[in-house]
Amino acid sequence: MNTQYSTPLPNDLIAVWISVFERQKAFGEHAFNQLSDEQFFAILAPGLNSCAIIANHLAGNMTSRFTDFLTTDGEKPDRDRDREFDPPASHTPEERAKIMQRWEQGWGVLMGTLNGLTIDDIGKTVTIRSVPHPVHAAVARQLDHYSFHIGQINIIARQLVGTDNWQWFTLAPGGTKAFNAKLMGG
């Protein structure tokens, strides 16, 4: 017997998405803020990307996926994804500022779109490269994608800064027991 269970979507689903995306943005920026300009552009080994390249790629992806999210394909005709992975021509503070401005614009498009969604929009279908996705699946896909790259940024940054100098966004290793005791009143 094939029984299908259906539960209503929680009313705070969009707010939860926004909260998780905001945390990912903060996690990435925490890493960026620990890097010198030289480190921001550093490529640790052939075939890898710098934090600058990853930030540029994420910005391009967010702008493409979330501009006119409900009405147009998420892969915009004017996006040049391959170019997002080209190392910047210069490694200057001005180039870093330009990438970070693009980063902010991408996050602004994403957050503007999420803030404009309603619970009724969750049942709609959007396309990404002509492939239909339910809205909830499209958002989950992007959350997964962005979290992967934010993790890369943090690994690269920590290698460049060094573990001894790294300022932890979350609990530092060895700090869980004391944190839990404080949190749980023990």
Compact summary:
With 186 residues, the protein is mainly alpha-helical.
Describe this structure in words.
This protein has 186 residues and is mainly alpha-helical. The chain has a single domain (13-183), classed as dinb family like domain (Four Helix Bundle (Hemerythrin (Met), subunit A)). The protein contains seven helices and two strands, in the order αααααββαα. The chain has helices at residues 13-32, 37-41, 51-66, 81-84, 93-116, 135-161, 176-183, and strands at 125-128, 131-134. The chain has a two-stranded antiparallel sheet with strand order 1-2. β1 and β2 (131-134) form a beta hairpin. α1 (13-32) packs antiparallel against α5 (93-116), α3 (51-66) runs parallel beside α5 (93-116) and α3 packs antiparallel against α6. The protein is flat. 22% of the residues are buried.
Features:
Four Helix Bundle (Hemerythrin (Met), subunit A); two-stranded antiparallel ribbon; 186 residues; flat; mainly alpha
